[in-house]
Amino acid sequence: MAAMAVSSSSSSAILSSFSSDLKVQSLGVFQPSDRVNHLNLSTRRVSKVKALRATESRVVPLAALSTLIAPNTEEGVKEEEVIIEEEQLDYEKLAKELENASPLEIMDKALAKFGNEIAIAFSGAEDVALIEYAKLTGRPFRVFSLDTGRLNPETYRFFDEVEKTYGIHIEYMFPDSVEVQGLVRNKGLFSFYEDGHQECCRVRKVRPLRRALKGLRAWITGQRKDQSPGTRSDVPIVQVDPVFEGLDGGAGSLVKWNPVANVDGKDIWNFLRAMNVPVNSLHAQGYVSIGCEPCTRAVLPGQHEREGRWWWEDAKAKECGLHKGNLKNEGDTQVNGNAQANGEVADIFESENLVNLSRSGIENLLRLENRRDPWIVVLYAPWCQFCQGMEASYLELADKFAESGVKVGKFRADGDEKAFAKNELQLGSFPTILFFPKHSFQPIKYPSEKRDVDSLSAFINALR
Hints:
Layout: E1 2-7, H1 11-21, E2 42-44, E3 53-57, H2 62-65, E4 79-84, E5 86-90, H3 91-97, H4 103-114, E6 118-121, H5 128-137, E7 143-146, H6 153-166, E8 171-173, H7 177-187, H8 192-195, H9 198-213, E9 218-220, E10 238-240, E11 255-257, H10 265-274, E12 355-356, H11 359-367, E13 375-380, H12 385-389, H13 391-400, E14 407-412, H14 418-424, E15 432-436, E16 444-445, H15 453-463
């Protein structure tokens, strides 16, 4: 419950001050405006959003305010506290209530509740749908975006088109030039290919986002449950942000809305086409998930959209840090129906024509210079959606080569085996496919993202 102490004066002065104090900050400004009391006000205000249960201010009608103002006394102005009650709002409960709500309904509720203290995070991809939904509510809205300095030219042109189409000014946030200079001078322009994308994303994206959110009480994202294996499958409609802080600072001071969490990617695109919404021209070139130019590429038919992002890294780590709260521990139950009741992930690639290699088995295979038969082996993790996606074709491959003199095997390379697989087996990301020739010491890594039976067969036949 928040309380406000008001020193007694004339009713008109009090009403004027109280009314002006309720005004929101101007559009396009992330930093909170100074709240100046023109009277001798002693103020204590509690508006921080608490974890799971947050406060929602109840505006006191001005007509009723006069009954709360203390009268003047002979000794001068006597201070009395005007209590403004706040009802508790349980965001976990609200998320369940909105589970079957439309994105438009969710967007309207978010904008109605937070007004000018909420903004849409726009990446320059299909999340333009959020802007269209906001426009359809008829309410004013704000949009911000992170300009990392490494975006595609097509994305910059798309930003300009969106601004002109909707008559808005996107509030761009930029990385700190000193931090970028230090990173590039010390590690080069493409260090993320060697030691991972996290450091670069932290400088160019996470810290600018943190500055932006410090001027807000809530933000709206385009996260969907079907976007990323292992990281976004449990995204709620609305939540208290588990990572970032809002205007009041401290844990629980920011609310995060995900209006399209339950919407499939194909339905997002049906909506964009139906509403004739402008889209990034990169989509027509095979790009689905779009980020910075060096870390984004087009995907092939049948590939998951996140395979186009940080393709050299593990599938379940494909978050830049903006939604770090989505990341799960490796032992957590995974997605796509492959988790057993006890939390263990069910194994994949099960076939009588496929050899399950142990650590000693793969080590022996690696040491042999003259093998009796050539081998093709997939290095996999059962929780990886990309591995799950190639399971049917790999099992068909095992059946096809069962009597041909080529052994088909698998080696689970996550967990305790991951370091060994990286150092000795050329593991970059899951799945990694290796061919062990009959008369060659060094295994050959399959270079393509095409994992259909014909492509894998062509690779084997070219080397056997």
